[in-house]
Task: structure prediction
Amino acid sequence: MLTQRPRGTVDILPGEVRVWHRFEHLVRQLFSRYGYEEIRTPMFEHTELFARGVGETTDIVEKEMYTFQDRGGRSITLRPEGTAGVVRAYVENKLYGEPGVAKLYYVGPMFRYEKPQHGRQRQFHQVGVEALGSDDPALDAEVIALSWRLLEALDVQDITIELNSVGCSECRPVYREQLIAALRPVADRLCKDCQQRLGRNPLRVLDCKQASCRAVLDEVRPPLLPDAWCDACRTHHDEVRSHLRALGLSWQDNPRLVRGLDYYTRTTWEITHPQHSTVIGGGRYNRLVAEVGGPETPGIGFAGGVERIFAAMGDQSEMPLRDGVFVAIADSAAALIATRLLEQLRGAGLRADRDYQGRSLKSQLRQADRWGARFAAILGEAELAQEAVTVRDLTEGTQTLVPLDQAAEIMRERMTRE
Result:
């Protein structure tokens, strides 16, 4: 009996991996322009990191983490999100001792035990950035802009920035009591999770996706977070919006937006899509570094599920960029010439391959198309007689005859030029 992959996981096959490479290349190019450098943290951490950092009352910690004991009896958790591990690395490696803002990004797998759905599996992938060391509202706007520019570069359509502030340690406790007072009389109409949240973490009620809870909120109309902002939080938020305007970005204010993680302070935002809900989300977390044992250090970041981003891209996410050369042999006498040409192409830095199963020329050209080649280099009797190769552009449908000893350089220049 075949052993199948675990539920909530997928195999990313070779043709699909090329789409991922294209995505990761774009991410690295874009993020580097904003001054971000890649960081790679372990796929598992001590469980206490997520309990302290993400929050003991979040759905992630209470319901969704893959937690186990290792052979030393230590509680270990596969990372459910990226921020806590990056902040732990920032503290443990004393990156706070370096001048300036630490600008970091990551791309990698995360793990949550939840119901598999389109765009989200139990092993999924996140792309995210963290900027640590400044409370400047201009940095908030820059990070929000970067999340938008990423989706813009991927040509994701029909997206909206939803913006809010969850306040600070001064004004949020005031709002917390106002919210409890408004919801306590209707607590029996909330879902079981929200009934527990009301006493432990009432802001999470605002984030509940249950239709019954949304209906209660619409009916009761509890006070909104902006009504409780202190002067400092209001000023900070106004300046964030001013910088967003300077960047040419628009947004929608969403006074109920709180996100699902406990570490956020002040700025929170989501980029939403009508069919795929939240594509990217983020916020400021000025207390998280201290919470995991470092000095008081402000920070802000965002994360997006890569699979969800691909879903929002639609059919275009399935189209890898054509590159490379497939050498097609139309005459068996060309086999040795094909071997030399392959080596020349690879030596010129090009992805190159050929058929090794004796297929017909027509079948080889179909194989070149499936392989994602930009060019097919055809070698047959006519080409051998002229010491040349026919170069067929599989994107444009044109073909030319070029000297064999110049073929690799000619195709390299064409791809480099584009």
